[in-house]
From TrEMBL:
Domain FecR protein: 126-217
Chain segments annotated as transmembrane: 98-123
Name of the protein this chain belongs to: Histidine kinase
Gene Ontology terms, MF aspect: kinase activity
Pfam family for this entry, one: FecR
Organism: Shinella yambaruensis
Keywords per UniProt: Kinase, Membrane, Transferase, Transmembrane, Transmembrane helix
Lineage of the organism: Bacteria, Pseudomonadati, Pseudomonadota, Alphaproteobacteria, Hyphomicrobiales
Taxonomy, superkingdom: Bacteria
Length: 335
């Protein structure tokens, strides 16, 4: 089992890839807006302003246009807003191989953006699961960890303490009691300390959520200057990924860890957060470029055994639609 070194480098790389992903999703959102309202000059001006802000936006726009073309979509009016770099004209017979080469290069670039964070997690993890897969792990101290789909943990057990880092996804912990060695779980900027108990931890880009099924735990967030909030059975604490602020609520005990039975229960979380959890059960890449839709808050119960149906049920009340661009891509928007 691995130690705790080399965290900073991996975190920085994941942040860089997150910025690239964000820019590509925003570029796709602008394309959808232009397609939905092709005669709106204000939309075109807004896109130009967005493109002028940063090189990462312009690079994402070029990649999004190539992806749009590769998917067979007709470019909306005003799509060619940013001057393309000059390309030498080739004889007609050479254009098809060039197009194929561009498509392959684009696919490789997008694959890197999507796969780099997963590669970093794979290198750090002691235990991991794939898309749609769950796994029960028994640690050397007798504690049981039920890993949800597309999840990973790094484990360090020493005579002084027991430490687990949730690198991605979600896990249900049933901790063996050991009064001499506290059991600590880190997920994002949240930290949970226990001696012996059962609880669920879910990690996504926006927040870390902890739900306590049995026992007592203390939870802290970086923004709370490491103040520890005590949780009792049925308590749910959400630690904001950006500020570390903790918000609290209650949840029925029978719904804690419901994903182990194929159900996902969420309470007052964003659409983006739910999509991130559904992504772990879906073989296609799911993108929500519509930031307003992504920030909508929802409470509900969704069937993880049919992620497409769950995705539609999630966004329909907010006017959202799920577009199956291909068997490998889902775009969620209100356009």
């Amino acid at each position: 089992m691995r130690g705790m070194g080399s965290r900073g480098t991996g975190k920085n790389l994941i942040q860089d890839d997150s910025e690239k992903r964000r820019a590509i999703e925003e570029a796709m959102d602008w394309l959808l807006r232009l397609k939905a309202d092709p005669d709106c000059p204000q939309a075109a001006r807004d896109v130009e302003d967005w493109l002028a802000r940063a090189e990462i936006n312009r690079a994402a726009w070029r990649d999004a246009l190539k992806a749009w073309d590769a998917l067979g979509e007709v470019r909306p009016r005003h799509a060619d807003l940013w001057p393309a770099r000059p390309v030498a004209t080739l004889p007609r017979r050479s254009r098809k191989p060039l197009a194929a080469g561009i498509a392959l290069a684009l696919a490789a670039a997008l694959l890197f953006v999507l796969a780099a964070p997963a590669l970093m997690i794979w290198l750090q993890a002691d235990f991991r699961t794939g898309t749609g897969e769950s796994r029960m792990v028994t640690l050397a101290d007798g504690s049981a960890v039920n890993l949800s789909a597309d999840s990973a943990i790094d484990v360090e057990l020493t005579p002084e303490g027991r430490h687990v880092r949730l690198l991605a996804g979600q896990a249900f912990f049933d901790v063996a009691h050991d009064g001499r060695r506290p059991f600590t779980v880190e997920a994002g900027n949240a930290r949970v300390v226990v001696l012996g108990t059962a609880f669920d931890v879910a990690l996504d880009d926006a927040a870390t959520t902890v739900q306590l099924a049995r026992g007592v735990v203390g939870i802290s967030g970086e923004g709370e200057t490491h103040a520890v909030a005590e949780m009792a059975p049925g308590d749910m604490a959400t630690v904001d990924g950006a500020t570390g602020a903790i918000t609290r609520a209650t949840v029925p005990l029978e719904e804690i860890g419901a994903w182990r039975s194929g159900l996902l229960f969420v309470n007052d979380v964003t659409v983006d957060s739910v999509v991130a959890r559904l992504q772990r059960y879906h073989s296609a890449w799911i993108s929500v470029p519509d930031r307003t839709l992504g920030r909508q808050r929802v409470t509900g119960l969704y069937d993880l055994r049919d992620p497409d149906r769950a995705l539609k049920a999630l966004v329909k009340p907010h006017g959202g639609k799920v577009r199956s661009i291909s068997s490998y891509t889902r775009i969620v928007s209100r356009y």
